[in-house]
Amino acid sequence: MQSFRNSARVIFIWGALLSPAAGQAPKDPRLQIGAKSLGVLSAAMRHEDADIRALAAEQWGLIGNPAAVPLLKKALEDRNPHVRIAAARSLFALGDPSGVRTVEEIVATVPKTDKKDATLAAVEQMRAVARNKVRVVGIRALAAMMSQTSVKALTQAAEDSDGGVRDAAALALARFGVGDIRSFVEALSSEDPDVRAKAARSLGEIASPGIIPELELLASDKEYPVRAAAMEALGAAKVPAALEGLRKGLGDQNELVRAKAVEAVGRIPGLASVALLEEARKAANPHIELLAVLGLARQGEAVDTVMAERALARSDIDTRMLALDILESAGGERAVSALEMAQEDVEARVRFRAAAALLKILKKPAKAGP
User: Fold this and answer.
1) Which of 101, 96, 100 has its CA nearest to residue 71?
2) 233 φ/ψ angles, rounded to the nearest 5 degrees
């Protein structure tokens, strides 16, 4: 009986995702492909690995159909907080704010470390560190959802005893226009390169064009991790004004800095970005070339997906995941065929991400591959 209910739910969701026109042939290949992909992604929501469940929960919001709301509401009851947070974000993206309260509760749950026994206290302390990291993830989710109801929870978190929680809450409040980021800006001038890099990444979370001048200065920092962090932060602003600093990164001697710069340029719309990405795709480094192709695809430019298809055969999982991003953004029949094959990958993350990419492509009108 339970199996029947699950199947019925899958059929209902898939019908809503594609909304086939009246008279459409029931054996339409796109419908058949989509039905399989939906089954793969739905199965991920029941996977024993919480990381996989969280990845699947993230995808529903990106696919963008309210028919997934029942699945996501059930995920709000998952035993793992990362899954609940991911489900809440997808629900919010689908126009349902019911998960916001769930995330606020995660953020407000302060771990206790009052054990008198030294051994137990040490164990509790380690658990507290892990739980506070989850709270930071929750705070970032609240900042992304931008629900005004969360300001109270974030204000309380800004007074927390844990430094990471306080910092994350301050940055989140800044996105709401009520936080003070002066300490982060001042940290950009620290003598400690780790502090400078952390400050740059933190300011990137705000994604404010107003901090671009400060970040541009770090594009010439003597330490490459700082320059790389500056590239990430500049890309987060997603405005053409950030391109001047990113140009420095594109010509950097360090490959990590160049890779971060290419990735960041891909986030900024406009012909100037396209020109920079076209130049970057000539790189001798295959990873940087893939990042450039991804940026062009996201800009709506026609790209050859052959390199991404080949990357799916690489042993490195991160490279395969990057290839999936390219195929999803490029679309077309070749991308669909490659993603179908990726659904058979030995790595669960690749299979489920490929299924989500297929569902997103199949929502759009069919187009010929490049």
Assistant:
1) 96
2) -65, -40
DSSP 8-state symbol, 312? T
Span 133-167, pLDDT tens digits: 999 999 999 999 999 999 999 999 999 999 999 99
Q: Report how far residue 15's alpha carbon sits from residue 67's, in angstroms, rounded to the nearest whole number.
A: 9
Count Cβ atoms below 10 Å from residue 186 Cβ, excluding itself: 11
Q: How far is CA 298 from CA 59, 240, 264, 273, 283, in A?
A: 17, 16, 12, 11, 19
Is the separation of the CB atoms in 39 and 90 below 8 Å?
A: no
pTM for this predicted structure: 0.86
How confident is the model over 346-370, as pLDDT tens digits? 999 999 999 999 999 998 766 554 5
> At residue 309, does pLDDT exceed 70?
yes
Under 8 Å between Cβ of 248 and 256: no
> Domains of the chain: which residue ranges?
101-180
**In contact, 264 and 242? CB cutoff 8 Å:** yes
Domain 101-180 classification at class level: mainly alpha
**What does DSSP assign to residue 346?**
S
